[in-house]
Amino acid sequence: MHQNNLPIIIYRARDNHEFTDFAFVCGNTRFQVHKVIICSQSKVFHKACTGPYKESTTNEIDLSEFSVDHVKWLIDFLYTGAYLIPEDSDLDDHIYMFAMGDMYNIEPLAEYAAWKFRCELSDVEMLEEVLALIPLIYNSTPDHRHELREELVKFLRSPSPGIKAEMKTRGWYDEMAAECPEFIKDLLFSYLELSDDWSFLSHLQNVTGTQKHTIRIREQVDDSICDARVKQYTGWLDVGNQHLFFWYFESKTAPKTDPLVLWLTGGPGGSSMLGLLQELGPCLINEHGNGTVHNPYGWNENANYIFVDQPASVGFSYLDDGEPIPSNSFVAAESMHKFLQLFVSQVFPDLAKRPFHISGESYGGHYIPVLGATIVAQNSLYPKRPQVNLESVLIGNGYVSPLDTHFGYWETLCTTNPGVDKPIFNSTRCDSMAANLPRCLDLARVCYEHPDHAICGAAGKVCWDGVISWYDGESGTGGNRNRFDITRPCESGDDLCYKQAGLIEKYLNTQKVFDALGVPSAVTNYSIYAMDVEVAFSLGYDQEISTQSQILYLLDHDIDVLMYQGNLDLACNTAGNLRWSNSMPWKGQPEYVAQRQRSWGAGGDEFGWYKEVKIKMGETDKKTTFAFVTVDGAGHMVPQDKPKEGLELVNRWLKKRTFNK
C-alpha cells in the first residue's frame, strides 16, 4: 500500500466499513470501527480491546450513556481529527464531546471540544442560555478539568451589552448559588486572579458590540514602513482569544475588481512577513535592515494581497494568557476560516463576491489544503454564514507528503535532474542513502498508521540518520550547506540560511514599525520564527501526515490546484512532490501520469516545465485544473530567486489557469 493513499483509504473505509474489527454500540445502533484507529488514540479503548475485559472478546463497547449523534461525532474525530455539528445545535453538544474526550482519555478531542465551545459561547445573546449551561458543565466534568468552567467565568466577567443588562435586572446570583455553588465560588475567585488586561479587552468588546470578534485596523497612509505604492492596511482580527495580525495591500492594477489572494508562510511557525518582505510583497527589506525598497515584481500586480501571521503566537499574532498553542493544521484552519469570514464580510465587504485564492509555500503544503477543505466544507454546511469564495490554491515547494519528500532526497542529491551540472553527492554517499531509504520509508509508514511518540520517534531517527542528515546535518547551524537551494551556501549560520530573515526581524522590532503598526502591549518582541509552534505541531503529529487527501477533496469540489516548484530545493523537493502527485487517485490521474513534461516561459525564454490536466469533476460544465509547474534556477523561495518568472507564474494562473501556450 502506498503511504500517500493511506488517509484516503481510511476515510473511505470509515464510510464503507471495510476491514472493521470492532464496534461502538449506542442503544440499538452499531458503529463499525477499526481497532488500529480507536486504540492508537485512546488508552481506555486500548485497554478495553487488549485487557481481560469482555470488550476484548465481544469486540464491542457500549457507549449508550451518550447519544447516537455524539458517538457519530466521536468517530468522525477519531478518523479525521475534527467533527462538524449542525448549525442549529446547542452548546450542550460540545460539553458532551469534551466529557467524552476526558472519559476516554482522548485529550485532543477534549481540547478541540473546548475550543469549539469557547468560540460558539461568544455568540450566545441571552443570559438564560448561559445559565442553563453552568450546572451541566459542573456536573459532567471532573473538578480537575477547568477549561469549560473558566470559559463561563470569563464570559460572565465581560458580557456583551445585552447580557450585561439582563444580569443587572435578574437575581440570578442567588438562584445559581443554590443550584451550583462551585460556580459562584469560581466567579468570586476570578476577581482576585484576572489581570488588568481583561478590562482592556472588555472595553474593546463593548465598543464593537460583540464579545467573540473585534477588529483593530489602520491604514498606513504613507509608504514610510513599506514602500508599496498602493493603499495598505494593517491590524489584528481577534477571533475569540486568538489575535491574528494581517497586512493587506490593494492591487496595483484594478483594486476594485481584482481577486483577493491570501499568503501563508510555512514552518510550522514561520511569519508571513518573511514572504512579504523577502519574496513577493510590494516592498522588500533593504540591504541594511533599516527600511524597505519597492518591489517591481510584487505579486499584487493583478490581485489584492493579504499576508497573515498564523497560527496565533506566530510573528505579530498572539494568544491570551493561558491559551494553548494550536497544535495542528486543522485547528489553525478553523481560526483562519473565521478570520477570512470576518475579513470579507465586515472589514472589506466589497471583497465578499470576488474570487479568492490561497497561496503559500513550504509547510503551506499542510496549511493550505486543510484550510481550503475547511472553507469548502463550511460553505456547504452553513450557507447562511459569510461565504469565502474560494476558487483555487497555489502551493509553492509544498510540504505535502513527508514520505515522498524523504524519497526525493536521493534524486535531488544524486542526479542532475534538479538542473545542476553534476550530482551534489558522490557515489559513496548516494549508495548509503539508497541502502537506508527503504527502511526509512517502511518505518515512516508504520508511524503514519500508528501515530505514537515512540514509533514516530524511532522512524524519525532512522530517516534522519540514514537519509536526511547526510545533507541537512551539514546545513544551517550544522554547516555551510543550504537545504533550500543546493547550489548556494548558507548565508546566516542558522536554519533559515538567508540573511534577509535576520534583517526583517531586526527591522520589524524597531520602535518606528511598532508605532506605525500600533503593536499591542501583549506583543513585546517580534520573532520571524516561533519555535514553540513547531514543537506543538510536532507533538500533535501534524508533521507526520500527508495532506494529499485534502488536495483530492479540493479537486473533487471543483477547486483548482497549482503546485509550483523551484527545482533546486531539497527541503520540499520536486522529485518528492511529483511522486505523490503521480500517485493521487483521482479522475484526472491517468491523463496526468501519461502526460509528458512540457516547457513553459515568456518572451522566448524557457522558465521550466509543467504538467496540467483540465477535467470535469462535478455535475457542472466547469473543468477543474490540476497543474504542476517548475521554475529552473530557483530554490525553495521562487519569488525571491526568480522574481520575473514568479510574477509571470502567478499572473498566468490567476488570469488563465493554464501554462499552455
Automatic annotation (TrEMBL):
<comment type="similarity">
    <text>Belongs to the peptidase S10 family.</text>
</comment>
<dbReference type="InterPro" id="IPR033124">
    <property type="entry name" value="Ser_caboxypep_his_AS"/>
</dbReference>
<feature type="domain" description="BTB">
    <location>
        <begin position="20"/>
        <end position="87"/>
    </location>
</feature>
<dbReference type="InterPro" id="IPR018202">
    <property type="entry name" value="Ser_caboxypep_ser_AS"/>
</dbReference>
<dbReference type="Pfam" id="PF00651">
    <property type="entry name" value="BTB"/>
</dbReference>
<dbReference type="Pfam" id="PF00450">
    <property type="entry name" value="Peptidase_S10"/>
</dbReference>
<keyword id="KW-0325">Glycoprotein</keyword>
<dbReference type="InterPro" id="IPR011333">
    <property type="entry name" value="SKP1/BTB/POZ_sf"/>
</dbReference>
<dbReference type="InterPro" id="IPR029058">
    <property type="entry name" value="AB_hydrolase_fold"/>
</dbReference>
<keyword id="KW-0121">Carboxypeptidase</keyword>
<dbReference type="InterPro" id="IPR001563">
    <property type="entry name" value="Peptidase_S10"/>
</dbReference>
<dbReference type="GO" id="GO:0000324">
    <property type="term" value="C:fungal-type vacuole"/>
</dbReference>
<keyword id="KW-0645">Protease</keyword>
<keyword id="KW-0378">Hydrolase</keyword>
<protein>
    <recommendedName>
        <fullName>Carboxypeptidase</fullName>
        <ecNumber>3.4.16.-</ecNumber>
    </recommendedName>
</protein>
<dbReference type="InterPro" id="IPR000210">
    <property type="entry name" value="BTB/POZ_dom"/>
</dbReference>
<dbReference type="GO" id="GO:0006508">
    <property type="term" value="P:proteolysis"/>
</dbReference>
<dbReference type="GO" id="GO:0004185">
    <property type="term" value="F:serine-type carboxypeptidase activity"/>
</dbReference>
